[in-house]
Specification:
Peroxisomal Thiolase, Chain A, domain 1, ten-stranded mixed sheet, two-stranded antiparallel sheet, 12 helices, 33% helix, 18% strand
């Protein structure tokens, strides 16, 4: 079967506004957690830290015409433009045959917030703001900007959506519906999501410390992230750069609770096993797992049980780390930015760190605590486990 190559990537986050800055932050195990700057009323919140993008200008991407659109659309356009340029795909290169699978949890919620604030101030309703709210609108705007004519999908499976979008893109290529797919996710750093996770009691007041005995919760982040997926033959025919290959994809559900995962890890284990079967690999061939690793009590315990179930004795030989310890939980974008993390680590030969993991559980496992480590490896897995029981995993290979 024709393999699915990853030929381009675009990302911005608290560690930097492009792939190279992001890579430098991963290698140096830099911590992107800072005091929240985008909420004027942050003093009212019991939690006051996050992982925000530090600078963003439409002019940097030639997107000035989108100045009146929701921030989520602006960031999606910027990340997609970087991914297309990285893959040497320009607007003139027959993008009418390129598809898009875009993941989002929140859609245009920043426009919803602005609409509410204006209504409270007695201003007239704004049709422009309301038109930006639906989740599906974001993908439509991206397709319009880049004149995409291939399959178009919006994936809304909570924090597994980014990985589901990658899998959907790969499925479209395998089935022959597309030769090239743009796949990834985007969610804003919004008051709605920040308040929601605060009310749930899921947020840390200082540092996300995934897989640490001392973990106290997640830190919210933002990281629009997209990759270019291509049939290998298509990529080779145009001499495209290849970062690695998507070998397998698995998804499942645990149908346990609206927000809490099944403590047994059964749904997560099914997704991981399905990804391994799709990749035609055995567990012992995986050297690294980029974990969902939120830093919350229940999620980390569940993921450890699921990894034990799938990998058995090999679990202690795995390197396991959480990108969320550096850039926060980026919601629907998490699976995409973590796939990018995994591919960059494979290409450049290192295991990314789990920042803040000072007292790992289980103690015998290798969570790559606090410092990235040089390593050469051929196969890896990236996990995403979400509200509503959504579970997804993807297996990748080095180019």
């Amino acid at each position: 079967m024709n393999r699915i190559a990853v030929t381009g990537m675009g990302v911005m986050c608290a560690l930097g506004n492009n792939k190279d800055e992001f890579l430098e932050g991963l290698r140096s195990a830099r911590n992107g957690i800072r005091p929240v700057a985008s909420f004027a009323d942050i003093d009212r919140y019991p939690i006051q830290v996050g992982c925000e993008i530090q600078r963003f200008a439409l002019d940097d991407f030639g997107l000035q015409a989108w100045a009146d659109y929701d921030p989520i659309t602006q960031r999606a356009l910027a990340a997609v433009s970087m991914a297309l340029a990285d893959a040497n795909l320009a607007r003139t290169r027959a993008l009418e045959n390129v598809g898009l699978a875009l993941a989002t949890c929140m859609g245009g919620c920043m426009s919803r917030e602005a609409f509410y604030r204006r209504a409270q101030a007695g201003e007239a309703p704004s049709q422009q703001l309301i038109r930006q709210v639906p989740c599906a609108v974001v993908a439509g705007h991206v397709a319009r900007q880049f004149a995409l004519g291939g399959p178009l999908s919006t994936v809304v499976t909570a924090c597994a959506a980014g990985t589901n979008a990658i899998g959907l893109g790969a499925d479209h290529i395998r089935s022959g519906r597309a030769s090239v797919m743009i796949a990834g996710g985007v969610d804003p750093f919004s008051a709605i999501s920040f308040s929601g996770f605060t009310v749930l009691g899921a947020m840390s007041k200082n540092q996300a410390s995934p897989f640490s005995v001392e973990r106290t919760g997640l830190v919210l982040g933002e990281a629009p992230a997209f990759v270019i997926l291509e049939a290998e033959a298509h990529a080779l025919a145009r001499n495209a750069p290849i970062y690695g290959y998507v070998l397998g994809y698995g998804l499942s559900n645990d149908a346990y609770h609206p927000t809490t995962p099944d403590p047994s890890g059964a749904g997560a284990a099914r997704a991981m096993r399905a990804a391994l079967r799709d990749a035609k690999l055995c567990p012992e061939q995986i050297a690294y797992v980029n974990a969902h690793g939120t830093g919350t009590h229940y999620n980390d315990e569940m993921e450890v049980r699921a990894l034990e179930e799938v990998f058995g004795d090999h679990a202690e030989k795995l390197a396991v780390s959480s990108t969320k310890s550096q850039i926060g939980h980026t919601l629907a974008a998490a699976g995409a930015v973590e796939l990018i993390t995994t591919l960059l680590a494979m290409k450049h030969g290192f295991f990314p760190a789990t920042v803040g993991c000072d007292a790992p559980m289980p103690a015998a496992w290798d969570f790559v605590p606090n410092q990235a480590r040089p390593a050469a490896f051929e196969h890896a897995m990236s996990n995403s486990f979400a509200f509503g029981g959504n579970t997804a995993s993807v297996v990748v290979a080095r180019a």
